[in-house]
Amino acid sequence: GPAVPNALLRHLNPEQLAAVTLPAQPALILAGAGSGKTRVLTTRIAWLLQTGQVSPGGLLAVTFTNKAAKEMMARLSALLPLSVRGMWIGTFHGLCNRLLRAHWKQAGLPSGFQILDAADSVSAVKRVIKAMKLDEERFVPKQVSWFIAACKEEGKRPADVEQRDPHTRQLALIYQAYEEQCQREGVVDFAELMLRSYELLRDHEALAVHYRQRFRHVLVDEFQDTNRLQYAWLKMLAPPGGGQSVFAVGDDDQSIYGFRGARVGNMADFEREYRVQSVVKLEHNYRSYGNILDAANGLIARNSRRLGKNLRTEAGPGEPVRVHESVSDHAEAQWIVEEAQLLHRGGLPRSEIAILYRSNAQSRVLESALFNAGIPYRVYGGLRFFERAEVKHALAYLRLVENPHDDTSFLRVVNFPARGIGARSIEQLTDAARASGRSLHQSVGAVTGRAGTNLAAFNDLILRLRERTKGLTLREIISRMLDASGLLDFYRADKDGQERIENLEELVNAAEAFVTQEGFGKEVVALPVDELRPEDAPAIGAELLPDAETGEIVSPLAAFLNHASLEAGDNQAQAGSDAIQLMTVHSAKGLEFDAVFITGLEEGLFPHENSLSDADGLEEERRLMYVAITRARKRLYLSFSQTRLLHGQTRYNVKSRFFDELPEGALKWITPRTGFQGAMAFTPRQAWQQAAGSPFQARKEPAPPPLVPKAAPSHGLSVGKAVFHNRFGEGVVVTLEGSGEDTRAEVNFGRHGRKWLALSVAKLTPID
Ligand code: ATP
Ligand code: MG
């Protein structure tokens, strides 16, 4: 064939090159972590564009996170001189949103429909349950909301819900009422974005045909984590045998969203249904050194259900994987901070250091240690910026400015800050609105008396804001709203309100950043005139931008509000500065860092206790650990702690079983190996849990009796001894266990109750 046409392809190995330049046919790249799947996918897009096989508008690419989409666009625009703004690259939700914005009418939605995030959707479900006068104990809003999302992800509308008994019949009715309420209020939840756009294509043949002709190339990253509906959506957009090229990349060993309905079986279905000729395997890992890779390979080999593939590297063994044991979660955090500082002083940018954890709740201790040490850090996930209460209040006002009939937003802020509108008046208002089928905004007249006057004043406030912000910039709109709504004054008056005010100010910055990023008011990269497509048209004026698809003019406020709903997972504060990266293992998927700490490697935490009851659950935890390990390029730390305060309870931990599954030769213990699990007796609580068959502890044989002879302990404590503790005051030792560093005591502090304390941490003074 012809010589490699250009520089794009130079940095690929032969297998990768073959994958990138595959002819336009269905293809599946099945390969392990760090083998260059994402690089292959991105390079293929660039290659298709550069060789003129497709125009920027003619392909669609699905990434797993907004962050990944942004990175892909950044890489593309670095590789090629073109405007990537109009390209269909994004998450499933982002792309569905775009489709529905363009075809809202056919989709049966109002033009300015709003997106409910997870929490909003729970409160919407709650309102439905209340209106139906059902018992919230039996129909727990959060669970019902999960149920509805699960139905939608299976493609089921209320009529399709299997009604086995009175309970499921009732659930179907709630689902039905919820759907009606959302429709009335012009809002859609995340699952609805997917299902609605699937139905849009299914029910509008002409539209589907249009997109099938348009998107000659469809590319999907992280295919192993697609759910049933997402796969159906893809099939609708690019049906098997339809002549489009569908290029999917994935790794069965990194399927970690089974708990949320992801179906690793989609890969086998894809191979069969699309008659994939050859499955491309990439076996060379370019990310990590040998020891890190050995650890990953050794661990994942324990899983039984695998498609089977191997990873090798030529990078050499590198450093051993370091294992660290702490006495408490605080000590763990402290050690990480110090170690990270050392790495940074040694020349590593902070952004190349990641601290990973299994559960969001673990981040608080880490955050406070970093904060106290004055080290910049950035949290992904967790309480996301756009999910903070004050930010949501502000967004609710903005939504009302955009659309006064948005009842969810109306209810959120009608009495926040307080305006003398009580629960009874709200109920009256809601009833009136329901009876007349109108919005709350329209039904204010139905409430009489003082509350009625106050409601009318609230309506005036919103309408006035609408009037006075016409034509203003996004920044100006937000500042006016913050003032006029009373939000700023409210938080100023609150002595703990400083952080919230900062977040509100950050909202203005986020809006500003959005305006620049999305190209509002910004010149776009010039293209030759004959290649100009609607999405590349320069912004009109400073403020309005035509929708890429329909040419409809959308206000920057509307665009920003959508962005705020979709932009989950990015803590805007501190964006840009060199900061240590904190995130759950789930949100680390696809990313890589020079140095990685995996924290909290304890039985019950990682693997998580909820997963231990069945083999599938445990295998998913193991894949999660595999994902975590393979994020590291050069240095990897595995860390566990003997005690941890979680959800208000101190847990006494046993190190994760994953340690027994990792190849000994790749590890190095940097704390003395205490043989913690073996020689240490279990605490009574653990013994009890074991006896009770708790999954927390299911695997270990009973500990042998301590070998330590009865030498006089150095702590000078004995059962029955009176002690003093700085926090809990006076108490009496009830139990003593362990020895040396690991000694712990159960102390009865009377008013404060009984507590287990690690003596190496707790300062206990004997009282004579
Ligand atoms: P994951 O499964 O974790 O998503 P992946 O298979 O998508 O991993 P990439 O992120 O694409 O892997 O690549 C891993 C790293 O290896 C990246 O830093 C990438 O730039 C680098 N890389 C990939 N292929 C090559 C190559 N041929 N030569 C040099 N570096 C490469
Ligand atoms: Mg990848």
Automatic annotation (TrEMBL):
- Tell me the Pfam families matching this sequence: PcrA_UvrD_tudor (PF21196), UvrD-helicase (PF00580), UvrD_C (PF13361)
The EC number(s) attached to this protein equal: 5.6.2.4
Keywords of the record: ATP-binding, DNA-binding, Helicase, Hydrolase, Isomerase, Nucleotide-binding
Q: Which GO terms describe its cellular component?
A: cytosol; DNA helicase complex
Task: Give every UvrD-like helicase ATP-binding domain span.
Answer: 10-289
Name the residues that bind ATP: A31, G32, A33, G34, S35, G36, K37, T38
Q: Where is the UvrD-like helicase C-terminal domain?
A: 290-590
Catalysed reaction(s)?
ATP + H2O = ADP + phosphate + H(+); Couples ATP hydrolysis with the unwinding of duplex DNA by translocating in the 3'-5' direction
- By its UniProt entry, which CDD domains does this protein fall under? DEXQc_UvrD, SF1_C_UvrD
PROSITE patterns linked: UVRD_HELICASE_ATP_BIND, UVRD_HELICASE_CTER
Per UniProt, the enzyme's principal EC class comes to isomerase
Q: Which GO terms describe its molecular function?
A: 3'-5' DNA helicase activity; ATP binding; DNA binding; hydrolase activity
Annotated GO biological processes are: recombinational repair
Which family is this protein grouped under?
Belongs to the helicase family. UvrD subfamily.
Q: What is this protein called?
A: DNA 3'-5' helicase
Gene source species? Azohydromonas caseinilytica
